[in-house]
Design brief:
- The structure is a single chain.
- The protein is of the alpha/beta class and 170 residues long.
- The chain folds into two domains: 63 residues, no CATH class; 64 residues, no CATH class.
- 26% of the residues lie in helices and 21% in strands.
- It is built from four helices and seven strands; from the N terminus they run ββαβαβαβαββ.
- The strands form two sheets. The protein has a four-stranded mixed sheet, with helices on one face.
- Strand 3, helix 2 and strand 4 form a beta-alpha-beta unit.
- It is elongated, with a radius of gyration of 23 Å.
- The relative contact order is 0.18.
Length: 170
């Protein structure tokens, strides 16, 4: 009887699972809207009182996105004061929504990727998993890998969608 060979395992294909770049921790949106008078105006004295009296330790070890969902002009210094209050507690603070925060966390992890380990590789970027991966992660991985790899595919090693193949001149 002839031995069964796993062609996928022997193909030399390198699989990148974007879930491996997921940063674990709670994400929180801090919306200034409830702090505005009639959701329109920031009263400096009231705002500064809130900054002094709020229990910022609730944000300990959390990733925080600061935003305002109100249709109001919020002065930049207000976001800066909130940042200063959060800084001793939060793991990371950004201005924007939770999607932007998620992209920022992934981008930081992707920047740690050792590109040399993918030189002339045939790469599959895994597409299915347990976590929702922002599309931006796939875009970043593609642009990051393209100058260095032979091929880029999407999906699973046994069933891929070919995306890129380096020309012989590259």
């Amino acid at each position: 009887m002839e031995e069964i060979k796993n062609k996928v395992a022997n193909s030399g294909i390198v699989t990148i699972d974007p879930e491996e770049f997921y940063v674990h921790g709670e994400r929180v949106l801090f919306d200034i809207k409830p702090l505005l008078f009639q959701e329109l105006v920031l009263k400096e004295k009231d705002f500064r009182d809130f900054i002094k009296t709020n229990d910022w330790s609730l944000y300990k070890n959390k990733f925080v996105a600061i935003t305002s969902t109100a249709d109001a002009i919020v002065p930049t210094w207000a976001y800066m004061l909130i940042t200063l209050a959060l800084e001793p507690f939060a793991k990371k603070i950004i201005f924007g929504n939770l999607e932007l925060l998620e992209n920022e966390l992934f981008n930081e992890k992707l920047s740690e990727l050792n590109i040399d380990s993918f030189k002339d590789a045939r790469v599959v970027i895994k597409g299915c998993g347990e976590k929702a991966i922002p599309t931006n992660v796939y875009v970043k991985l593609t642009t990051f890998l393209k100058p260095h790899v032979k091929t880029i595919m999407y999906g699973e090693p046994c069933s891929t969608v070919p995306l890129y193949k380096a020309s012989k001149n590259e």
